[in-house]
Each structure stands twice: as C-alpha cells, then as structure tokens.
Amino acid sequence: MTNQVQDTFHTDVAPIKIGIVGLPNSGKTQLFNNLTGTYNVVANALLTTIEHKKTRCEINGQVCEITDTPGIHELLAQSYEEASTRDYIFSEKPDILVVCMDSNRLKQSLNLTLDLLELGIPIIVALNAIDETCRRGIVLDTRKLLHFLRVPVIECIALSGQGTDELKDAIINARGIKWEFTYGTIIEKGLSQIAQLLPSDLPHTRKIAALLLLNDSYITDFVKQFSKLTDSDLYKIQDSVRKTQQDFQGNITRVINNRRSQWVNDIVDEVVIQQSISPREYERTIAQMCRTPLTGIPILLFIVYLIYLAVVNCANVIAGWMDETLWVPVHTLINGWVGPGFINDFLIGDYGILSLGLANAFITVLPILSVFFLIYNTLEDIGYIPNLCVLTRRFFEKLGLSGESVMPLVLGFGCKTMATLTTKSLQSSRERYIAIYLIAFAIPCAAQMGLNISILGRMGLQAFVITFSVLIAVEIIAGMILNLILPHEEKGDFIQELPPIRLPTVKAVLVKTWYRLIWFLEEAVPVFIYAALALFILDKTGILMASKIFLQPVIEGFLGLPLQMVDALILCMARHEAAAGLIINLINKNLLDFRQCIVAVTITTMFVPCFANIMAMIKELGTARAIVMTLIINASSFIIAGCLNWTLILFFIS
Prior knowledge:
654 residues, alpha/beta, Rossmann fold, 28 helices, elongated, Small_GTP-bd
C-alpha cells in the first residue's frame, strides 16, 4: 500500500531516492501516479512532463522520494529536457532508477537502458504497455530479457495499474550490479585517460568521458557547474578528447553506436516473438489520415464543429439549468433575508462575492469547462495532438518557425503557461521569441477556448466563424511581421516523434477531467472572489466609474462596447475565465449584441496573458523583454478589436 506523505513528514531515516526515467510518452507519469497515489496529467503526447516532479510517499513501510522526469532517449542529450533528466541522475544520485520501458519501442528503450546499466545504479525495468504489444501480434519473452539485463523486469499495464504491487516489491529489494560494457582497446584506453582528468568529486566519470568523446553539446556545461574547473583543467580534458578521437582509425561515434546497436539487436532477436499473422493496425491508417492535408483538414474542421455543438447544445444547457435550479433560489433567498443596501450589494450585487465570485465560477464557468475538457482530454489520450502538429508544420514554417516549434504552439491550446515553458527546448532564440509571442497573443488556452465557444454559440455559428477567422488571421500576420523584423538564424533538422493512436479508456478520461476541474477550482475560485472584491471596492470608492468615464471614448466609441466591458478587461488581468463569465452574464442581460459579442471575445482573447503565463514569459525571456512583449500585445489587442468593430459596422452589420 502506498500512502501520500506530506511535506511536513519527519523521519530519522533518509528516504529512498527513486527516479523514474524512460522514453518520451512511455508511461512514466502514470507509473509515478500509481506508486505515489498522487495525480499528475497523463497524455498520449510528447512534452506532457517538462519539469521534474517530486513526491514523498511510503512503499511497503519504507519512506521514498520519487521523481518523475522528462523523457530521454539516451544519456547523449539532444535537447534541454534530456539534459535536465541526465543532470538529475548525475547530480541527485538516486538510489534506484525505475526504467519505464515501452514494450512497443523495445530497441529505443534498450538503448537507454544500456546507458543506465553502465552507471552501476540499482535498476528496475517496468515493461509497460505489454497489452498493446500483444494486440499487435508480438510477444516478449520477459524471462530472456531478465537474463540479458540481469535486473528485475516487471510486466506492467500502467493505465490500469497492473504490475504496481510487483514493482513496489522490486523497489524495496533492489540491489546494484556491476555491469561492464566495453568498446574496444583504443576507445577504452581513451575513456580511462579522460576520466582520470575529470574532478574526483564528479560522479560517473567513465560515462561522462564517453559523452565528451561523443561531442555531447550539454555535458561540458554540467561538468563546469558541478566542479569549478580552471580553464587549464578544461583545456587538458578537451585535448585528451581530441587526441583519442585522432588516434582512432575511423569514425569513433559510428563504432560506439554500432557496438551498442549490435547489443540491442542481439537481445531483440532473442526476446521478440513475432506472430506470422498480426491483426490489422487501423491506428496507423487513422494517424496517417489525421496528418495528411487532404483528409487531415476536414478531420480538424469536423472536430472543431463537434466541440462547438457539444458546448452550445450541452454545456450551455447545463449552465442554464444550474442557474435556474441552484443560483436563482439562493439569490432569491438572500435577497429576501437581506434588504437593499451595502450587505446585499456585497453578497449578490453586480460585484458581489457570491454572484460575480462563486456563482460565476461554479454555475457559469464550471459546466462549460466540464464538457470541453471531456472532449479535449479524449483527443489528448487518442494521440491526435502530435498528428495535428505534423499537419500544421508546413503552415508554421511560413511564419519562420521550424517543425520543432510546432508542438509548443499546439500545446498552447491546452495550457499557455506549459506551452511557454516547453519553448526552452528550442535551440533558436529567434524561434523561441516568435513562439512565445504567438502563444501569448491570440491563442486561447483550453479553458478560454471552451468559454469562447459558449459565448459565440449563443450568437450562432456565424459569430464563431468570424471571430476565430480573425484570431487566426491575427496570428498569421503577427508571425509574418516577426519573421520579417527578427534576424534570421540557421535552421536545424527536426524529426517529430509520433505516439501511437490509442482508444482512450473512459476511466482515464474521466479521472483526468476530474483533476483538471479540481485544479481549476483550487486556482480560480479564490481569484474569482478576490477579483469580485476588488471590483466591489473600486465601485464603492468611485474609482471604477471614474475609469469608465475616462475610457468611455475608447470602449464605447472605438470598440463599440458597453461600459460594463471595462469590468471584463479588469477581470482579464486576474483570470480570463472570470472575464468570460462576466461576458456571458452581459449577454443574458441583453447588453451585448451579435457584433459586440464578436469584438468582446476577440479583445479578451488577445488582452493580457494570464499571470502564470506572464511569469513563464519572464522565466524564458527575462523581465524586460516579457514586459515589453505584454505591453505590445495589449496595445495590439485594442487596435485590432477597434478595427474589427468598424469593419463589422461598415461591411457586415447593418
């Protein structure tokens, strides 16, 4: 049994430090959830885990500190995420490594496992997704795999929790083994010489020497950070690396890789049993259709239309029913108990903590997000998102972005903050700046997307089409301008790894939806209440009315919106969902018409990225550049919304 241990947990015995490592999208986070009893988002997509997640728990009576790490293909790092995982292994010195081995990608998983075996750290292999392997007509001989690796191999189906108890037992009984893997006399001699020059306090010096020999672009920084080397010491190490490379007759990288590949292939030949007749893999056909323009674009449009119908015909109906059934009786009751005056205004007035705060969050916003997240989480677990990245890659290249930048942009439709943080993996500072700008500008996150659809759906499909056409056009123009004015850099090659298309399990989708809604309520409800309280104080002190009078020429004249939209713009600074809830209330009061609704959604989508996203922008760009970017985005949102308003007046709306 695993029990969650709070941060205040005290013990005289140091916890067992366990690191979960594996290929991207191999099931590491699900294993983490199973072992710790906590929940972190699991998705059939890359970059779901972008930072280390650490939790203390008890496993069979032993206190453990378990860390979930970003995906890694091998210790020879090719990205920031891979380097951070490797640095964790080298610097944190975990007692045990749980290797989440994807049974569908056995060769790649074995290549990583070989790297980890060479470190001498106790290892447990969790052979995950064996049910999918069996459905493809492939059987893995686990006993033979255990024989070759000489470490525990536990068969797992992480999504259903199968194998978790066996994995816990293996963790408690884990033991280290001495593992030797040689690359030939000349290479081994060079590795020994390089290792001797490395600082004595540096862990895994033989492996670090091998990474230096393979010209790892991140390892030198780690060595310099871990041990304060002088320029002279660093020069000696680099000179020894060059000498070993020159002494070797041939391509030393190719020889090392061939030696490793041979070891992997020998194991695969013995372990994998392929049936002569395998079931048809319809997943490949569906995936191909999703990323081919001829079929992928209609599929994308169908999905968007399906979301639109679900939000308009289901979420809005639920929200209306909850308002009539839950909020109206409460409002009537309080109104009867508390007569007109200060207390009434404070509780259920236009800026009341119950009306604009709690009711806005629970009655207006929550039902819409529930329906939207159910659909979005289903698409995520199917594996549609990475295929959408491939479909849109050529389009984004026109904006000066390589295929490497596509995933963060698409992830922005889920969470703009997480998407911004994933841009750290982009090698080009130019692409990183463009991607962060476009994510912050006119891309609505999942929560805002669902609410925007709900708002526009009340005005009909035409309002939805016009608004999102404008937002798409704005993104394209912004990307083209940035592509023109920013200095160009040389683009590197990029290969998009695609996860398999999977049928999602109902339980997994419901659990993820439940936790995302809980996280929304935990984060948003206090913000909704504080925002309502702030507006209440501003209203009672007269500051709000003074602001509205000052902004009246812009809000009513240029934007063509009612003055109440000032409240929505202020709420945007706290949380966009609160502003969207207020807009819905304005529609219900007949204060926004067709044209105004389009303009309102457009400006609130572009106006002021959420506070968490601004913090992520500061982290990736620095304070000055992030603030300048935010100011430019806010000014642009007013100009674009105003131009849209007058365009609608002159050409579309009588």
